[in-house]
Amino acid sequence: MNTGQMFLILLIAGVAGIGSVLDEGQMHRPLVVCPLIGLVLGNLKMGIILGGNLEMMALGWMNVGLAMAPDTALAAVISTIVVINTHSSIGDGIALAVPLAAAGQVLTIFVRTIVVFLIHRGDIFAKKGQYRVLESMHIFAMFLQALRVMIPTAGVMFLNTKVVEQLLSEIPKVISDGLQIGGGIIVVVGYAMVINIMDVPELKPFFYLGFLFAAFTKFNLVGIGGLGLIFAILYLQLEYREPKKKIKISNSDDLDDDDLDD
């Protein structure tokens, strides 16, 4: 891994760390982070495959109230680097992502605890009208979130590949297999949570139809996605088309010649 690749990976890691607290651009999602890391490391295919698998795990991970979700940014960045550099399997990447997400969760809670001090200081500066200082404190808080992912990523990149392979090989098979199974269960739970959130009765037939196509046809995901797009367009056209204008005639005597001409 050369210097340019390290710089780009650290940049992606920083943006992912910031995105994990902003949630607007969704730049922390594995579906975005993993392909970008794979592109930098010259293995885009592995990045896309791993990102798709990790995204299914992270579908139901979200911050609700004071409950912090596992960190997808740290898990996506480091697991992609390790899998591509050590030529490991997707299963190893999933097994590695689960504890990394838990570790990232602890780190983000630690950083947010530090930011509480900045918030109280920000109240003082806001009362004094020092808005420039207040803006710089917001930027500094985002920088701390970026460092939360960048520092562990730098540590992994500077490690020798053989050292990482040795550490992975020393993990007992029962633990790695258990983490892979746990990751599969998380996929199901996450998908179920998303379905509950998107519980729209009139759209459920399309959901079941997709399962039937996947089970009883040879359509791949691209074909099913294209079919879903076509159904979505048809649904919108039928749902939001303009109704035809109807003339209600209550009494023919009330109509004059001008109305009949119209």
From TrEMBL:
UniProt keyword Phosphoprotein, yes or no: no
Membrane topology: Multi-pass membrane protein
A GO BP entry: phosphoenolpyruvate-dependent sugar phosphotransferase system
Keywords annotated in UniProt: Cell membrane, Membrane, Phosphotransferase system, Sugar transport, Transmembrane, Transmembrane helix, Transport
Segments forming a coiled coil: none
Residue ranges crossing the lipid bilayer per the database entry: 6-22, 31-52, 64-84, 96-119, 139-159, 179-198, 210-236
Domain of life: Bacteria
GO terms under cellular component: plasma membrane
Record localization: Cell membrane
Entry-linked InterPro entries: GatZ_KbaZ_carbometab, PTS_IIC_man
Protein name (Swiss-Prot/TrEMBL): PTS mannose/fructose/sorbose transporter subunit IIC
